[in-house]
Each structure stands twice: as C-alpha cells, then as structure tokens.
Amino acid sequence: MTAVPADxxxxxxxxxxxxxxxxxxVVESLRPRSPRDWLLVAGDVGELVADVEWxxxxxxxxxxxxxxxxxxxxxxxxxxxxxxxxxVRRYQHLVAMCRRLGVLTPEDPYPVWRGPxxxxxxxxxxxxxxxxWRPDGLATREEAxxxxxxxxxxxxxxxxxxxxxYPSRWEWCxxxxxxxxxxxxxxxxxxxTVLVNHFPLVREPTRILRHPIFAQWCGTAATADWHLxxxxxxxxxxxxxxxxxxxxxxxxFEEVSVGYPREWRPRPxxxxxxxxxxxxxxxxxxxxxxxxxx
Length: 294
Description:
- By secondary structure, the protein is α/β, with parallel strands linked by helices.
- Helices cover 27% and strands 15% of the residues.
- It has eight helices and ten strands.
- The strands form two sheets. The chain has a six-stranded mixed sheet with strand order 4-5-6-7-9-8.
C-alpha cells in the first residue's frame, strides 16, 4: 500500500469530458487521500459551461486547492450551450466562474506547492497551438491545413473554437505564448516549476498519433525548450488521450488524460486514478500511482 504523505500530495488529471455519463461518474468518484492534497486539472473538463462549473465545483469542495487550465473543448461554442460567448470573452467568463468557485486559473498569481517534493511554483498555462507541428514536406500552415482537409482529419476546433477578437487561433496563440513567457521569466529563479498545460509543450509525445497530420492542433514549436528554460521539475498535459509518463532532457512529462469511455474502458487501470506529480513517484513507470503506455 502506498504511504500517504502527511503534508499532502500534488495530483493531476485532465480530459474529464463530463458530457459523457460514465465520465461524470468518474468525477463523482474522485477523492483526495489527505486534506492537504491539491489537484491540477489540465483542461477538457467539458464543452458546456454548466458542466465545467459542476465538475470544478465538486472538485473544489474536496481538494485543498484546485488549479485549472483550459483545454480546447472548454473554449468551444456549441449550439447546445446557453452561454454563447466566443473566444477571449468565453475564456474570461470561465476564469470568472473559477474565481467564484475558488479555483485558480492561468490569470491568477502562480501558487507555490510547499508540500512533499516542494517548494515548486505551479504554473497553469493557456497557450493554444499554431500549426507549427507539421508533417515533413509541408512547409507552411496553409499547406498543412489543406492536407488535413484533403485527408479528412480535421480538428473540431476549426468549427467551434472561435478566436475573437483575434483574426486566427494561431495569432491568439502567439499572444498567449508571449505573455506567458514574460510571466515565467519574471518568476523566482530559485524555484523549480510544475508546468501545467492542456497541450504538450514538446512535439515528441505526438509522434505516436494514429494520424500524424493532427499534431498541428496539439501545440506549438515556441515552447520546445520551456521545460529547461523555466526549470521544470515536471510537466503536466493532456489532450492526446494517451496517458503515460515520458522523459525529455531528463524532465518528467505526465499525460494525465481520462479520455472518452470507449478509450478508457479497455485499459487496465481505472480512469479515476489520479496521477501523482509531487512528491515524484518512485519507479521508472510512474511509481505507486502507476502509469501505462499505449
């Protein structure tokens, strides 16, 4: 049995997709092991604002602190959602909702985890993507998008994630990257960080995608060195629905996705198992919390 740290554990999860009843049950089952546990939620809680509010509200009542960063699904404006806000205004609405719930967001001062494995600056990031992760032979964003449409592998963001008031999602991405880099550069250089983003910060985790063309909606080349530049003790992400632990330049990367029921039901580990981030789990495969590779 895993020992429970007396001063709590920093856990993470993502891609809860609570629009699915089975995933809603997963959220209802999540519990801390200690009253001092924190939970990082790395995006894609759901598509409807009411669903996101419900899930984060449940978790905020149970964990000592919840830190959220948006995925692409929270930023969609589906026709079934009474909240019709788009782009930046939708994001701001979600931030205001989180503040009412006591949930921290990328717009708040970065908190410091001082429990076991700390101190570490916990930095929730909201960065988006810019189509820079293109297959070989596709020199431009336009070529990559054209190939995606030709092959029929097109992210739903193209229809539901609006960048207003930015002209495009990649220009919104550029603005987010610049502002976030500034904030991280100004952070305490003595503190290691836990970087939390919905999208992976490096391209390598996307190499095993069934459809490589989809990687263009999964991140940006602008963050390729952030795990080194910003002193990461660990990087947390989701989006790919391929939960696993990988190492890049000696830094631990944790994909903490739950994913859709059709994806997690065949897997050996239950979807409600939170991923331990700090203290660092023992063992090469993710330690006592366990990970699996797909």
